[in-house]
Amino acid sequence: MQTVARSYLYVPGDRADLLDKAPGRGADALVLDLEDAVIAARKEQARETVGAFLAAAPRNGPGLWVRINSDQIEADIAVLSAAAVGIWVPKAEPNLLHEVDAALTRAERRLGPGAPTFQVVALIETARGVLTAAQVAAAPRVLRLGIGEADLAGELGLQPGADRAEFGPIRSQVVVASAAAGITPPVGPVETTLRDAARLEQTTRALLRQGFRARTAIHPGQLAVINDVFAPTAAELASARAVLEAMERAERRGSGVATDADGRLLDRAVVRTAAEVVRRADASAG
């Protein structure tokens, strides 16, 4: 399983046929969806299907997450087994995340010795979630944040253009909150245009520049592009390693600064960026 997932594939929780195929699709992690992908009349069937899938899931495949319904916490968390990494929490706000923490603690006790410590991906999808993003990021169990732009557009009355520029300030808040809390950089929203690989690459690279380090997918055909964008190129990796090596040589001489092969100054900020590139490359190769 990846140390840091680049791609998360949503899989409808009531579709056993899709769940069975999903581990081989190329996603770093799967999100078994009990929420938006499942109509109300099929929620219980979806829980049974996801529970059975988790019970039989191998431990050496992609990371397995369950997206719960924010108003059905106990029932949805009851499907978890030791094969799951944790849950995705939609409409995440501080009070809800504390309820989730308590419910996950009860689930761990139910599973007994050897149970994992379940983690949380908290989805910022409400105005209150945006305003409390720092608290959401610092809540118990939160590994990283995500952003649900369709829900936000509806609540805020936004009419996004093709470049999604209207979400720029909110995306920045999510990235800053993640960095301030010291958690894994956030997960970007889905690209809903399914048959346009060029657009998918363009919008994914925009997320990378904005500070996101992963993205959700709603179709397996999107995964290769997402994985490629969030994995550093060979040239980027070579440049990053050269920066780290130059700084190591400088430190051995007792200096806190160095220069690269082109004579450019390298300081701690540049080194931090280079180290992040190497970490992403190592995770991508995992």
State Rg. Answer: 20 Å
Give the end-to-end Cα distance, rounded to a whole number of Å.
Answer: 7 Å
The total beta strand count reads 10
Strand content: 5-15%
Supply the CATH architecture of the largest domain: Alpha-Beta Barrel
Q: How many structural units, i.e. domains?
A: 2
Question: Helix amount, in percent?
Answer: 40-55%
User: Structural class, judged by helices and strands?
Assistant: alpha/beta
> Ranges with pLDDT <50 over ≥5 residues?
none
SSE order, as H and E?
EHEHEHEHEHHEHHEHEHHEEH
The top-level CATH class of the largest domain is Alpha Beta
Quick one: overall form?
Answer: globular
Number of helices: 12
Mean pLDDT: 93
- Looking at CATH, the homologous superfamily of the largest domain is Phosphoenolpyruvate-binding domains
The largest sheet is:
8 strands, parallel
CATH topology of the largest domain: TIM Barrel
Write structural notes for this entry.
- The chain is of the alpha/beta class.
- It folds into two domains: 7-230, Phosphoenolpyruvate-binding domains (TIM Barrel), CATH 3.20.20.60; 234-284, no CATH class.
- It is 47% helix and 15% strand.
- It has twelve helices and ten strands.
- The strands form two sheets. An eight-stranded parallel β-sheet has the order 6-5-4-3-2-1-8-7. Strands 9-10 form a two-stranded antiparallel sheet.
- Strand 7 (187-188), helix 9 and strand 8 (214-217) form a beta-alpha-beta unit.
- Helix 11 crosses helix 12.
- The longest helix has 19 residues, at 234-252.
- The N and C termini lie close together (7 Å).
